[in-house]
Amino acid sequence: MRLQILKIVGATGLAVALAHYLGLDNASSAGIIAMLSVLDTRKSSLRIAWQRLMSTVVALVLGVLSFSILGFQLSAFLLYLTAFVAFAYRFDFKPAIAPCSVLVTHLWLSRDLSLPFLGNEALLMMLGTGMAILLHTYMPSRQESIIAARSNIESQLKEQLLLLSALLRQEQEVTRNRLEDLEALIAESKKTVYQERDNQLFSQTDYDLHYLDMRQDQVQLLNIMSHNLESCHLATIEAKLLASLFELTADQLSESNPATYLLQDIEAMLKQFRERDLPKTREEFETRAILFQLLTDLTRFIQLKIDFYQEYQGKREMFA
Fold first, then answer.
1. Closest listed residue to residue 314, CA positions, set 156, 207, 218
2. Residue 280: its pLDDT value, please?
3. Global pTM?
């Protein structure tokens, strides 16, 4: 926020000062254009600046035609405005409507359609957008905070897996609000990654976005598993074995871990499930069904990481 304020003030001051130095008429308009052009991200500022420069040519041409046909009257300005707004909406140049129309009002008030005065107006737009782009060349990277967020997400995921393990052992309840906190952290991290993508013109953020998508899908599975565990009330051998598997998954949870061998442990446990005697009571049957569903969800949880790892294997350094 503080940096954005400095950029707005700096771009405005530089644009006005340079316009005065060059002896341009209506020099303050260059500052207004600069102020409007300093947006939140570097890419958006470049895009809007290009739109405004292109739109300036169209606006001045339409203004000259309107005032030449109808004279320097309100009707002429409204004719220009109708045509230019239609153009801006047709080509999605809406941010250019206000600053370009300010320039056209200069033609109206000065009653001057000469080439030198039109050049004056074009220079005002170039100075305003140019100063905004100049001050946007510095944009600090957020990569360190993104890396820290990934580490924090993994730590919280480990905690949740251990809580599920404890619940399977009937030691304590899962704290559901921590999952909500984790979901909020992932959502906030995505916003940071999108800002990084817009601010750093040549950086690659696909890895970060896909990583966060993968973790978000895993959190959704944790939500499902915690709901299922609320209906599991019997302490069984299978529950203890599954609890150990959750602990192992938590212990091996890492950004760089392929996690493929965990599927082998799950397959071994499935084999034990099939070899166990059939449940004797309805409650045992329901518990066995819940545990089997948990094992299936844990398989999906691990498979998400395996798919992600295989997609980016050997490419990790490119996206760090």
1. 207
2. 61
3. 0.58
